[in-house]
Amino acid sequence: MKTMLIAALLALAGPAPADVPLQPTGKWTVEYADAACILSRDYGPSNARMALGINPSPLASGLEVVTVTPGAKTTRYRPMKGTLTLQPSGRTIDSDISVYEIKEKNQTITTLTTEGDVATEILRSSSLSVTLANGSRTAFAIPGMSGAAGALKACQDDLLHQWGIDPAERDLPSLANGSASPAQWITNDDYPSSAVGAGIQGTSTIVWTIRTDGKVGDCRVVQSSGSKALDDASCGAISKRGRYQPPLGVDGTPQVRHAMRKIVWRLPY
């Protein structure tokens, strides 16, 4: 009888409420890095502080969503799949996710990478949530995005000026790739054998020129992986395989453009 009564009360209560987003405990800040402008904010109590970072590409429509949460029993890297969900639109985006557990800092860093024009939609959203393939899910309220967007744009403009690139390029239509997509231009076969043998891993951030014939021109590293071999392999693969439809300006005349990407080199465990 007691079990039946509990069941009846649960039925009257209706379905479980949707995830309640964590509320921020600090203001939005823009962190200036060598090759990124990261919009970040703290969440949760001081004894269990969490952080959310939003890192849109200064030259592309993709972005990274980074969460830093307390707790790590080991130090390791795990790739997995997950989803990013935006509210109030309800849009869900499947994504690759990197999970870094750092025992020394008692932190777990989750980086979710998206392609496409997600940055603009995030700036109009009231909350976002990150769901990992293992079922864990964290939702964050993100009020005040419209005000933070101005500071983020100013940072990105400064970054592009440092690279000798006109920030107005970001307002031009996206270029069509002439051969697959940049994500497919680099394969495991490009991993330098010297780096594999030495167990070297890292992330190279590179910027390249798109010539008026659609081919890749000069490529340079704007944030090194710490390994010359990995940096050289990043630019080498992009220069070899990168192809675009010939870029045009708003007036229809040929115009040199630029692109950038983070190349993550990770060895399997």
TrEMBL record:
<dbReference type="InterPro" id="IPR006260">
    <property type="entry name" value="TonB/TolA_C"/>
</dbReference>
<feature type="signal peptide">
    <location>
        <begin position="1"/>
        <end position="18"/>
    </location>
</feature>
<feature type="domain" description="TonB C-terminal">
    <location>
        <begin position="176"/>
        <end position="269"/>
    </location>
</feature>
<keyword id="KW-0472">Membrane</keyword>
<keyword id="KW-1133">Transmembrane helix</keyword>
<protein>
    <recommendedName>
        <fullName>TonB C-terminal domain-containing protein</fullName>
    </recommendedName>
</protein>
<keyword id="KW-0732">Signal</keyword>
<keyword id="KW-0812">Transmembrane</keyword>
<dbReference type="Pfam" id="PF03544">
    <property type="entry name" value="TonB_C"/>
</dbReference>
<dbReference type="InterPro" id="IPR037682">
    <property type="entry name" value="TonB_C"/>
</dbReference>
